[in-house]
Amino acid sequence: MKSLFKNAVLLVALAGTTIAGGCMMDRDHDRDMDRHMSDRSSMDYSVVRFGYSDGYWDNGHQWHAWNSDADMRGYRDDHGAAYHDWHHDRDGGDGWEHN
Questions:
Q1: Contacts of 52 (CB under 8 A, 6+ apart)
Q2: Within 10 Å of residue 53's Cβ, how many Cβ atoms?
Q3: CA gap 75, 82 in Å, rounded
Q4: 67-93: burial string, b at 16+ Cβ within 10 Å, e else
Q5: Looking at the DSSP assignment, which residues form a beta bridge with residue 57?
Q6: Is the pLDDT of residue 80 over 60?
Q7: Percentage above 70 pLDDT, the chain
Q8: Contact criterion met (CB below 8 Å) for 73 and 67
Q9: CB-based contact 66:55 (threshold 8 Å)
Q10: Contacts of 45 (CB under 8 A, 6+ apart)
Q11: Among 4, 13, 29, 76, which is disulfide-ready with 83 (CB 3.0 to 4.6 Å)?
């Protein structure tokens, strides 16, 4: 009888550990997915003339701050020749290039 009771307790303990471990893994997976989704940019980069770490000049010569870090990283990665890794006001003309 003691053996049956010990086995039942052990079985319940193992089942609880397995269920709790599975829940934690799913929660970690969801958190990781949220992080990856927030890394995506939905910005239309065709409006950007010159990009800087703190924002960008659009084609109409209007200054904008990046909406998110993902927008800045996406532009930097896809349009490196028109991106400058410093603040726009470092150089004269607030970073508007005459070309």
A1: 83, 84, 85, 86, 87, 88, 95
A2: 15
A3: 9
A4: eeebbbebbbeeeeebbbeeebeeeee
A5: 50, 63
A6: yes
A7: 65
A8: no
A9: yes
A10: 74, 75, 78, 79
A11: 76
Report the chain's mean pLDDT, rounded to a whole number: 76
Q: How confident is the model at residue 53 (pLDDT cuts 50, 70, 90)?
A: very high
**pLDDT value for 66:** 96
Strand ranges of the sheet holding 83-84, from the earlier edge strand across to the other edge:
63-64, 55-58, 48-52, 83-84
Residue carrying the six token digits 């400058």:
84
Secondary structure class of 78 (helix, strand, coil): helix
Q: How many residues does the chain have?
A: 99
CA distance to 52, 64, 93, per residue, from 61 (Å):
14, 10, 11
Average pLDDT rounded to a whole number, residues 56-63: 93
